Structure formats: structure tokens, C-alpha cells
Amino acid sequence: MTDEEFRRPIGELDDAQRLARAEGLDAPGIDFAAFTEGRGTLDAHVIPLVLPSAVVAAMLPRGLQLAPQPLVGPDRHPLFLSFAHNRFEAWFGVMDYHELLFGIPWVEYAEERMPHRGPFIYMPRLLLDGALPQLLGERVYGYEKLAGGFSRTGSEWHVADAAGDTAVTAAFTSTGDASPPDAWPSFAWARKLLEMPTISQHGRRFDRDARITGDADQRFVGSTVRYLFAGTDWDGRVVEPTIEPIAARVTFGTAMTLPDGLASTAWATRSIADDVLGSFRVRTKQIVSAPGDPADVRMPPGGGRKLKIAVLGGGPAACAAAYWLARQPGEYDVSLFTMGWRLGGKCAAGRNPDAHDRIEEHGLHAFLGFYRNAIRTVAEVYATAGRPIATAEGPVEGAFRSQLDVGVVDRWNDRWHYFPTPLGSNDRIPGRVPPGGEDVRADLALAFKGLLRRIAGELDDAQDASIDAGPLERALALVRAPWREAMASVVAWIDREGDIAFERFVETPPAASRPKTWMISILKQVRSGLAWYYEDRARSSRTAWFQWGGLDTLLTIAIGLLVDSTLDLDDLDDQDLLSWLLAHGLEPEHADISTITQVYETLFAHAANLPYRTGDLACGVGLRWFLLVSFGYDGAPAYDFRWSCPETLMTPYYEALVACGAKIHFFHRVTGIDVEGQGDAKVLARVRMQIQATVKNGAYDPFMPGVAKPGAPAAWPIRPAFDQLEQGDELARRGIDLEDVYADWPGVGERVLEQGRDFDACILGIPLGALPPIVAPLVDAAGSAFDPRWKAMIDRISLIQTVSAQLWFDRDAAAMFDTSIAAVEGDARPARGLLTGFVHPQGSLGEMSELIDIERWPSPPPELVTYHTGALVAGARLPAPGPATREFPANERARWRVIFEQWLRSNHAALFDGGPRDFESFLAALRVPAGSTATGVDRLWAQVVSIACQPSDLYVLSRPGETAHRLAPSGSGVRFLLLAGDWTKTDLNCGCVEAATQSGMLAARALSNEPRWVWRVGY
Ligand SMILES: Cc1cc2nc3c(=O)[nH]c(=O)nc-3n(C[C@H](O)[C@H](O)[C@H](O)COP(=O)(O)OP(=O)(O)OC[C@H]3O[C@@H](n4cnc5c(N)ncnc54)[C@H](O)[C@@H]3O)c2cc1C
């Protein structure tokens, strides 16, 4: 209250101000900010309810929405009623009051780019019978605390509004003994319901139903209510909380406006003894924090039983989910189960002890500069693993190498040519968590702005100066001047617009925006002018041809997004990227240019209709990928792993998980889940696993001793440490591969995890290709748990077999690549770094020679190693395992060898444009392990040549019309079951480590409020 307000006659004050005056709280000089926390006791009857999501969402104010949650099906949401008696002792005196409230847990900001979106508890209705708490609640916490009248007779409550009209009558019947919280397994979940930071509206104006309309500048406040369920209180006294199962009969009166669909007549509920969403009475002590910015409010660790989380799978998604949960001390008991002997999944690799400990990978792997979640998680994982690398420059140093040599190979005048891509580095810091909302960028809008600037940059004078200009060229350069000026005016305009304003600009239909019509017409004029300008030049100069293809692509993307008026790129996912570009005016001759095909190639978007690829890649996924890869990166456009992908990524994950107390169970192959109940009441009851082998001393050490260099992360082997396994001799003798589901190995036993006993929640991190037999109850149309969304996802989302090779050479890069082409301007090295766009099916190449240094070749070591990767044709279905398909992997490998040899024979001279022309000499340049006498083409088979021929290894595609069938990490529709994988619905919807990591983070956050900051692309 201001001085002026304080001097006003009491009759001019509103009720709250009068109350404040009466209590002496609003006098000048009394500072509410002095309040830091309130301590007291709680005796509450809590009645969880489940209502349709739309009904619950309608109780939220503008700016908030329902967040994913693990307890009920996708179209429903839990909330609870609480009838409480609170007593607090605060710095200003004692508050003793009754309160009736509705609480909606799992609420988040609707704005995706908040630093911490939630989840929070929002309380849309609160009635209470104390002036002080009402005042505090309204003034300080921003709750709508309405005055109410409470009368209690035994276990019957009657609550009326200020006018005396009945709001609620309730009767509670105890159905069991009041016992410590741990006596009720379901209470571990009920706690989750209560223990989230609360969010409320600062200085809000209420309507009677607490439904806020139209306040665009809504500000929110956060606070925490911590219930003491174990340990000692603030005075060091042992707390003795009790939980008592109750049945409840509640009738709403006329004074309570009810959410639609909630019957006003009496109803009874199940108790906590029967159900995680059952009713209970809780008596304990509580600490209420002072309110603050919701971004800063952090739930203090709770007491009581940890939630047991079973994580299935050991790839990047499962590990990210496991890590973000395990690192919360005292909260989660994480057990990770994976088949085989190593972590990594499609990012796995091993050292081959029979070939100088060379690294044998699934395929070429790199991180892209826009991987904000993955890079940030790596930094956190390294810190937890005791390998701190997060420097002021960001988390990259120490784990990655910036990769600036990125380029494409493209075909011009019937010959393949290498074209470095002019990306360069920037001074943004990869993986850094923005310190506050103001720093969170509209990434796609920014990338789009970058694209417009690039177009203008490509047209600038420097480009003309580089042209070896004759008189005609000079004349044409003059002709180009107006386009250059037009683009300069576009850039000047976007530079003036803030990022958010620019987003709005993009999303406004052209008909409603003159500047937009103006910009589209300029871009179209520039494009047709350039078509004329480049018409002849592109035939005579490969640089001009490549430049024109790039400009045409960039201009067409800009025009297409402005015409379609969307940055919400999921909306375009029913179309194919290339078809969309052609529809927006891309020159048909550019349909196969690498500027576009590289997007297909890096997402393995291959179908049978090569080379045009129409129909292979969801437009929204492809555009988002292109914009972020090209214009949305931090630091470098790409990052190579300093010690190979699995050693850089998965070894620290293993160390960090162990350091957090997570248990990692290798040799556990999940075979099925049991789902009980139907419709919205489906519950994950059991997880069934085959134990593949027994570990001799109980604990398995997955690493190879003495292989990694000092200080480097430990190395994973290409096969298990047989000496640590009871069945090791037999497995070795019979050559059984524990990652091969076709192998003739029944395992050594079964393990069944029961919900409630062995786990509270389960995170399914197994890839889509391996899921059909595991999730059969959800996919079987005849079964009671059938869910058509699961069936659509399993049936409709395409998978593909990736194919890879690693070639070691006794010649260096200068001897194998055309030295006249530098990847980075001014760089004389002939390095190829990362390139893509080459002949199917091995379209991508990575030069990984730095890794030779950590392999253990005899002197002199090889001088060059190249990793090749690509995919066969989409839609592959692998046969079911069984006696008839034992040889399937071997047959597939033989099939791939034939294709690979053919491919290399035809294309080695084009790809290795400085190397030997004839195939025999090329083969002779390959390095084979010491002792190998291989000659001719057999030298190829002494390299690594691999094909994905296991269901788990199939790569998930993002084809038009398919991404809508993905289920979100918390969209399983089965209680206690969360999903994590690059196949789930994320902001990227494609197969990459960033999507996998985001998925794992979102699964963790649906359970735990952490990680607080998950980077969302913004759309
Ligand atoms: C050749 C190739 C190259 C790639 N290159 C890149 C790249 O450069 N950059 C990039 O970002 N991404 C790349 N990717 C994609 C990336 O590897 C995946 O997106 C990522 O590994 C997916 O992680 P995930 O955890 O969802 O699944 P996965 O990595 O597939 O992990 C799944 C895990 O589940 C386990 N599992 C499977 N079945 C069972 C079962 N029945 N029981 C128990 N456990 C089981 C597996 O053992 C594994 O641990 C590439 C993929 C391939 C195939």
C-alpha cells in the first residue's frame, strides 16, 4: 500500500485493503518481501478426479495449458479437491484456517520458449475462512482466495460462500488405518500430484469462475508447498506424517460453478489403498515458500520413498531420460535394462581387438550445431561423470571438434564435383542454457532471417568481384544491381523487426499485410531475374551452377513460407519437401540439386523413385532441418566426436548414471509388456524380459581395460567380455551375438518386472523397429487394451535399413582428394570433413582420420579413414525371428557386400577425386590389419562393411503423412508408461540424437519437473 493509499479514508478502501489496515499489515514500512517461508501443519482430505482434458483446460487462465502427465490417457487429465485445515506460524502471527481448493497438477506455460515451462499446479478455486491467509493469498501469492464459511461436524464438512450459499458438502469415511506414507505404494504417485511448484497470477483480476479472459499481459508467480513426509522438521523433531485411505461423498451446491462434466450430485471415490488416484487424508507438516518468478521456483527434494523408474533400452533417448531422473538426489531409483553388452543403440560401436582395437561403428555419426538439448545434456553428463568440460566457451571443448569442412558432392556436366558449403562459424555458444526468458530465441524465425540475409549476401559486390568478368559479365553484373538493392531493402526491413514481430509477420496471410505482399513480389522478381542471369553461366561454370541452385532453393523456401504464412512447420508434413518447393516455383532442373537432396540424404529419406525422391520426406521436417542446420547453429555447423561417437557420448553417460546411483542391467532383452484395463484406465502391469546371460560376480564391467588413452573415456568392445559371463565359453564357442535377435540363443531365464513392486513408472526407450512384438497388447485389434493410435504408429511409420562402411588407407587425404578444392576459404587442406549428396546408397562420407590416433595400429599407422553411410530403400520389413530365419543377418551382409563392391567399383574415382583411378590400385591403397594376406577385393572385406539387419537397428523415417502418427513421450495412453526415442513426437520428428535426447528429457520432465529447460525449436 502506498503512502497515499494509506492516508485514504477507510471507506474508500476495498475489502482487502480494509483487512490489511485492520491487521496492521498494509501500513507503510511493513514489507511483505520480508516473508520468506511459512511453516505449519496440514490436515487435508484429498480427492483426485479425472476429467476430460478440454474441461480441465477450460479452468486455466490464458497463458497456461495442460502439460503431459503419466497417469491418465491422452484425452483426460487429473485434478484434485482438497478440504484442508492449515495452521501456520509466520513472522506476523498465527494463521489457523480451513480451505477448500481445486488443484490442477501438470500445468505448463502455453508459450513454448519459456526457460522453464513447468509443470506446475494451478489452483482455479480456493475458498477459505481466514482474513489473513485470504489477504496474503491474494496480495502476495496472486491466488483468488474467496471468503467462505466452513462448518465441520465429525467427518462432515459444509462449505459456503461469503453470502452463506452452499458450495460443497462432503462426508469422509476412513477405510483403513492412518499409516506412514510408505505403507501405501500408491502414495508415491499421490505425492507427485501435490508436490509441484504452484503457479498463480500476480495482480490478476478475477471473474467469479476464475476463468480469465483476454488479459494479454498476464504475469505469473510461482511458489512451493513442501510437505514433510520423512525426516525431521525445522526444529529437528522427527515428523510423523500419516496417510489414511478414505471414501468420499461430495455434493456441490449452488455457490460452486462446476467444471463441465463434473456431476454436482454426491459421488464416492476409490481410496488410495486401491488406486494411485484414490482419496486419502494426509496429516503432516508443511513449508510454504515465498512467491517468486516461476522460472526460479524449484521444488526442494521431498522426503519419503523414491519413485522406482525402469528404463528400457540403452540408446541416447533412454540414457537421457535415465540421467535427468537419476541426477535428482533422493527422488528416483533408476534401473536401466538393455539387451547386449553396451550402451548406445544406433550410436554404439566397439573396438575390435583382432584389428588393432580399431573403432567399428554402426555408421557415420556427428552432432549438428543446432543440437541444443543434446550438447547441453552432454555437458551436464560430463560434469556428473567427473569430466567437467563446460567452459566459458560452452560445453564443446573437450568432447567435440568443431567441423567446418562441410560440403556436398554434386553432379554437373556429367561429372561429380565437391562443393564446400559456405557455412563458417559464429560466436554463439553451443548447448548453453539461456539465463532467462529474454534470451530464449525464436529459433526458426531467426534462421529464416539468416536465410534472407544469406540471399542478400550471395548477391553482394564481392560475389561479382570474384567473377572473372569479360564485357558481357560486367554488363550482367550491372543488371544484377537492382536485385541486390531489392534484397538489401528486404534485409533492412527484417533487421528493423524484432524476432517475435517477424514471426507474426511470417504468419500473417499476404492478403492482410502489404509489407508481406511487397516482400513476396521482390523475392519472386529476384528469383526470375537470377534465372535469366544464370541461364548461360550455369552451363559454363560449375560454381555459377551451384550458386544458382542454392539461391533458387533459398528464395523458394522464403517465398513458400511467406505465401503459406506459417512457421508451424508440422502443418506442412502431409506434403513432400521437394513437391512443395516445386509447387512454389523451384526450377525443375534443380529438383536433384544437392542443396535439397542433402536434406533427404542426411535423414536417410530414400524411396524407390530415385533420383527425384518425391514423396520421401515430410516437408515440415525437411524445412525445419534445413533452416536449423544451415542458419540455426551455434558455434560450428557440425561437431565431430573427439573419441568416436560411443566413447565420447556413451562412456560418460555410463559413468554419470553410475555416479548418480542408477543401476545398469546389461543382457536384458525386453520381450513384452502386459497392459491391464481398457480405454482410459489402461495400466502398465508388467514388463517381461529375457535374461540373455548371467554375470559371474553380479556386476558387469562393460569396458576394455587398457585400450583408451590416459584421460580419454573408456572403450567399449565389439563383443561382450565373455570371461565375465557364466555362459561366456559357450557364447564364444558358438559365435552367438547377443544383439542378434535371429541368433539361436533362448537366453538363460526370464525376468518379470511388476508395477507397484519393481517399478512405479517405466520409460520405453526401445526403437520402433523392435517394438511390434513388445507392445502387441496395444496393437492387437482383438485385445482389450487395443489402441488404434499405437496400431497406426506401428503400421504407418516407415523404417529403413541403413548401410555403412569404414575404409582405412595407407595414403593421406592429399593423395586421395583433389587438393585444388579447399573446404574452407583460404584453407589449403584437401580435407573433406563431412559431405553428403553422393551416389546412392552411400551418399554421405566423413573423414575421421583424427580417430586413427586413438586406435592402436602398428607403426606406421594408416593415414586416412573414411566413414561412409546411407540407406537402401524404404519400407523394409524384417522377417520374424525363428528357426527359418537364423541366417537372415548373414544373408543380408552378403547381399550388402555385393551392392557395396559394385558401388565402390563404379564410384571410387569420383568420390576419391585425387586417388587411384583403377579399382585394383584403389584396393591396394586400403590398409588391412597386420597378418592379413588379403589381396584384391578381399582387402575390402578386411575393412568394416555393415548393414542394419536387426529390427532395433532400423532407422525411423519422416515421410509425408507419417509424422502425425508419432506418439509423444507422455502420450502412450497407458498409465505409468512413458516413451523415449527418436521415433516419438518431438519438435524435430526425425531420427537424430537431438530428437532422441529431447524425447528423453520430455519423458523425464513429465515425471519430475526436471530438466527445467528443454530447448524447443519454438514450433
Ligand atoms: C547409420 C546411422 C547414422 C546416423 N548418423 C547420425 C548422426 O550423424 N547424427 C545424429 O544425430 N544421429 C544419427 N543417427 C541417428 C541416431 O543414431 C539415432 O537417432 C539415435 O541413436 C536414436 O536413439 P534412441 O535411443 O531413440 O534409439 P537407439 O539408438 O536405437 O537405442 C535403442 C536401444 O534400445 C535397445 N534395445 C533394442 N531392443 C531391445 C529390447 N528388446 N530389449 C532391451 N533393449 C533393447 C538397444 O540395444 C539400444 O540400446 C544415425 C543413425 C544411423 C543408423
Main attributes?
1019 residues; alpha+beta; nine-stranded mixed β-barrel; 28% helix
Q: Compute the average pLDDT.
A: 87
What ligands are attached or bound here?
flavin-adenine dinucleotide
| Computed structural class | alpha+beta
Low-confidence stretches: 5-10, 204-216, 435-441, 823-827
Radius of gyration: 31 Å
Kindly estimate the percentage of residues that lie in beta strands according to DSSP. Answer: 15-25%
What is the helix tally? Answer: 26
Task: Please give the alpha-carbon distance between the first and last residues.
Answer: 42 Å
Largest sheet: 9 strands, mixed, barrel
Q: What oligomeric state do the depicted chains represent? A: single chain
Give the strand order of the largest sheet, numbering strands 1, 2, ... along the chain: 1-3-4-5-6-7-8-12-13
Strands, total number? 35
Tell me roughly what share of residues is in helical segments: 25-40%
**Net shape:** globular
Task: Write structural notes for this entry.
This protein has 1019 residues and is of the alpha+beta class. Helices cover 28% and strands 22% of the residues. The chain contains 26 helices and 35 strands. The strands form seven sheets. A nine-stranded mixed barrel has the order 1-3-4-5-6-7-8-12-13. The protein has a seven-stranded mixed β-sheet with strand order 21-20-30-31-32-29-33, with helices on both faces. The two termini are 42 Å apart. Residues 5-10, 204-216, 435-441 and 823-827 have low confidence and may be disordered. The structure holds flavin-adenine dinucleotide.
